[in-house]
Structures are given as structure tokens and as C-alpha cells.
Write a structure and sequence with these properties.
By secondary structure, the protein is mainly α. The chain has two domains: 351 residues, no CATH class; 111 residues, no CATH class. The chain has 22 helices and six strands. The strands form two sheets. The chain has a four-stranded mixed sheet. A hairpin with a 2-residue loop joins strand 3 and strand 4. It is globular and about 80 Å long.
């Protein structure tokens, strides 16, 4: 039995150092295994998520001084669908990387995610977690499975979360010090969050509420500063694009289905990850116990942000804010249990946390293996597909932006977005249908057999029906392999 010292009587956590160490090691092991298994499963020359290459393409256009947003009704087949923040942040990397692979952008995403995890640890430390439990909060982010495929994916999720996490940290600092500068900093960070990833807007709202309950004037200043900076950024974007920005947003944000939200929620929340449970418990304890901090309100805002997954095409990335806010509260929640109920309760909580992490870790390993099995055949035919596309002297229309970029072709066709416009009654891409029907493209590249059933994701077809019908009439198969089909105009067979 450990000796009872004056220090352990003053701080119950001192008598539970072994339990704290067990918790930190268990979370660290889960983080390494979950994220590591996915990183090993990656085939790095292939896209982790389909939109990566088109995001880099549009950022490169912005870096080159070209217009970013284009009205979807003027004959363009490729659209930047996100708010301008991500493209503006990626544009300088395009000056360095040029037309090369997207390794530099992926490294930037990885650095941003490390920053997000570091902010989780820093915030947890300010909320009362010791060093070991604060580190557990930082590492806990990597124990959520979707983080494994977002770790280096060139998307707005991690960048938006970086600004949101920094805003939470700034408001937490204000709670401790009441310095007016922290409200100004938080307002700019909240506006940046919205300009990069607008679906994370509930977090800035939640932070404003957290400040309002403590200081009405400071809360109103945060709200006003955030709104002014965000409106200014969006106004400049709208004027610079000649109104195309708002046209794009209207075209690509009106297809919703409860089944999409249900599918994403089921994948992320069932079976429940114990880290989500600790986050929810920490939020409830904090709000009910009178120790209402910005992180508790941010958890609620993150939960509301998850509802954006009702948009067709959503996935686990919509739950990143809930993962981060839950990770932040892991350490403080366990520390609070120890202080309120004693070392024995903390030891039990540590053991339960470690035990309940086993199932999600095992599931993540199995899914990583399946991911690897699915990508391996694609890798085998990657080189030949690139060679065939590269050898074509004419324009190529395709849905695999990685293949087109590797072959030196411009990725100008976002099939899923055009299918969305067509499905929601926005009209058919008539000029594209005409071009396909006339055989204007030297090659068509698809990720499915044109003669078979067009696959769908969350009830949305991969390609617009009108384009598929025109392609079936005019194009014949040239080559197929590794999940890629290449077609040429019928009657123009090449060796």
C-alpha cells in the first residue's frame, strides 16, 4: 500500500500516478496503432480522398492570378466548392511546388494536424490536466479512426480545425487572464475558421456564448469582430469573382438526405469510442458543475457541426471537430474524476479507458487492411493508365485527377458535382454533353464500366446521366484495368 504523504492528501492525483501513466500509455498506443495502420495502408501516389488533386489545381490557378470561382452556368466543368480560405492558404505552396506532385501540400496538412493535436494538449493543461493527462489529450486525437485518412489529405478540414482549435485556446486564455487582446485574436481566428471550413461555424458561435455568460460586453465584441472579419473576407471574394462565388455555393449546397447523416453518424459513433464518451462526460460535468469553460461550449458546438453531415457526400471528416473537442476533454475529465472521487476512481477510469480502446483499435486495423486490399489493385495498373493517357495528343475527360495530373493533363471535370446539379434540377451540362456526343475528347477515363450500372455514393450517381448516355453512344472501350476504364471515339482504334 503506498504511503500517504502530505502531497497526496493535498492532491489526490499524486496518489494515482500509476493510473495516470496507464491512461497516457493506453491512449498513446491507440493513437500510434490507429493512425499508423492507416498510414501504412496508404498507397501514397494515389489520392486519399478524391477531391485532393482538384483542390490543389484550383489553389494553383489562384496562385497564377486566374479567377478562382466560375459561374456553373457558363460552360465550366470544374468548380472550387469550398470557401476561399483553403485555396488562399494553399496558393503560396503552388508557387514552390509548381505542377509537381502534391507532397508539399500533404506535408503542410500533416504539420497543421500536429498543431491541432498540440493545441488540444495545451488547452487540456489549462483546464487542469497534469502534463501526462494533457499529453494524453493531444494524442487522443490520433486515436480516432478518420484522423488516419485526414492526416495528410489536402482538404479544408484540418486547416479549419487548426483555426478553430486556436480560437478555443485563445478564449480559454481570456478566461484565465481577461486580456482584451485575446478576444481580438479569438475573433480573427473564428472568422478564419468560417472562411476555411464554413460547416465549423457552430464552434465560433459556441465560443461567443461561452464569453457572453462571463462578460456580456466581451461576448458581443467577439461576435461583432468575427462577423465583421468573415463578412469582409466573403465580400471581397464575391466582388473579385463577379458574383460567381455565391452562384457556386448555391449550386453545390442544396442536396441533403437524412440517410447521409445517419450513415456518417453510424460509422463514427457506433460502437461508441470511449474517447467520445469521455468528451461528453467532461462537457456535462463542466456545464453542470459551474466550471463552464470555452472547451465545454466548443464540444456542444462541435456536436451541432456534425449535423452538417446531412449533406449528400459527407463522411467521417464532418466529425473532426467533435473528435478534437472530445480529445481536449479526455485529460481534464479523468483529472476531475480523480479530484472529486479519489485515486481509486481515477484508477478504475484509467483501466476502463484502456480496456474500451481495444475494440475501436482492432476495428481500425481491420478497416486499414481492407483499405490496403482495395488500393493494391489500383496501384498495379496505375503506371499503364498514366502512360495511355499521357500518350494521347488530345484533350482527356476523366474523373481520376491523380491520373490526369501524372499524365500532364488538366483536371477539368468534376463529375460528382455536375451530377449533383443535374439531380437537383439545376440543368444538364449541355455543352459537355454536346462535346462528348461529338467525340471531341481524344479519351474518356472513368472509374466504372460505361456499359454497366453507374455507381452511386449516398444516392448520388458518380457521373451525370446525360453525360453517361452521350458517352455510351459515341465512345468504345480502349483499355480497362485496376478500376480504371479508358475509352476512345468509336472507329478510331489506336495501337
Amino acid at each position: 500500500m503506498p504511503a500517504v504523504t502530505a502531497r497526496s492528501r493535498a492532491d489526490p492525483l499524486a496518489a494515482a500516478s500509476v493510473a495516470i501513466l496507464v491512461t497516457a500509455l493506453a491512449v498513446a498506443a491507440a493513437a500510434v496503432i490507429v493512425t499508423g495502420s492507416q498510414l501504412v495502408a496508404y498507397h501514397w501516389e494515389l489520392p486519399f480522398i478524391g477531391s485532393e488533386f482538384i483542390n490543389v489545381f484550383h489553389a494553383g490557378r489562384l496562385a497564377g492570378g486566374e479567377g478562382l470561382y466560375v459561374d456553373p452556368g457558363v460552360g465550366t466543368w470544374s468548380f472550387p466548392v469550398y470557401f476561399p480560405g483553403m485555396y488562399a492558404l494553399l496558393a503560396p505552396l503552388s508557387w514552390i511546388d509548381g505542377e509537381g506532385p502534391i507532397w508539399l501540400q500533404r506535408l503542410a496538412m500533416l504539420a497543421a494536424l500536429i498543431g491541432v493535436a498540440a493545441l488540444a494538449a495545451v488547452t487540456a493543461r489549462r483546464l487542469g490536466a497534469g502534463i501526462a493527462l494533457a499529453l494524453a489529450s493531444g494524442l487522443a486525437l490520433f486515436a480516432f479512426e478518420p484522423v488516419g485518412y485526414l492526416v495528410a489529405a489536402v482538404r479544408p478540414d484540418v486547416l479549419g480545425m487548426l483555426f478553430a482549435a486556436a480560437a478555443v485556446a485563445a478564449v480559454t486564455r481570456w478566461e484565465d487572464e481577461h486580456g482584451a487582446r485575446w478576444i481580438a485574436i479569438a475573433a480573427l481566428l473564428c472568422a478564419a475558421t468560417i472562411l476555411v471550413r464554413q460547416v465549423y461555424a457552430p464552434i465560433p458561435v459556441a465560443l461567443a456564448i461561452a464569453v457572453l455568460v462571463r462578460d456580456r460586453r466581451a461576448g458581443l465584441e467577439l461576435l461583432a469582430g468575427t462577423a465583421a472579419a468573415a463578412i469582409l473576407g466573403l465580400g471581397i471574394t464575391e466582388l473579385a469573382s463577379g458574383g460567381a462565388f455565391s452562384a457556386d455555393q448555391r449550386a453545390f449546397t442544396d442536396l441533403f438526405a437524412l440517410s447521409s447523416l445517419g450513415e456518417a453518424a453510424e460509422a463514427q459513433l457506433l460502437p461508441p469510442n470511449v474517447l467520445y464518451v469521455l468528451g461528453a462526460a467532461g462537457c456535462a460535468l463542466g456545464l453542470a458543475g459551474g466550471g463552464r469553460r470555452a472547451a465545454h461550449f466548443a464540444w456542444l458546438g462541435a456536436a451541432v457541426a456534425c449535423l452538417a453531415a446531412v449533406k449528400v457526400g459527407s463522411s467521417g471528416n464532418y466529425f473532426l471537430p467533435l473528435m478534437w473537442t472530445s480529445a481536449v476533454l479526455v485529460g481534464p475529465t479523468l483529472a476531475s474524476v480523480g479530484r472529486r472521487f479519489g485515486p481509486a476512481a481515477l484508477a478504475a477510469g484509467a483501466a476502463l479507458t484502456a480496456a474500451l480502446l481495444i475494440a475501436p483499435v482492432a476495428g481500425a486495423i481491420d478497416r486499414a487492411r481492407s483499405f490496403d486490399d482495395g488500393l493494391a489493385p489500383l496501384e498495379n495498373g496505375y503506371a499503364e493508365a498514366v502512360q495511355r493517357i499521357e500518350a494521347s495528343p488530345g484533350e482527356v475527360l476523366g474523373d481520376r485527377f491523380d491520373l490526369l495530373q501524372a499524365a500532364g493533363k488538366e483536371p477539368t471535370f468534376e463529375a460528382l458535382l455536375l451530377a449533383q446539379i443535374e439531380t437537383t434540377g439545376g440543368g444538364t451540362p449541355g455543352d459537355l454533353v454536346t462535346a462528348v456526343g461529338e467525340g471531341r475528347f481524344a479519351l474518356l477515363q472513368t472509374s466504372f464500366d460505361l456499359r454497366g450500372t453507374v455507381p452511386a455514393y449516398q444516392e448520388l450517381a458518380f457521373w451525370p446521366d446525360s453525360v453517361v448516355s452521350a458517352a455510351r453512344e459515341r465512345y468504345c472501350e480502349l483499355w480497362a484495368g485496376a478500376g480504371v476504364w479508358i475509352y476512345e471515339p468509336c472507329g478510331e482504334r489506336r495501337p
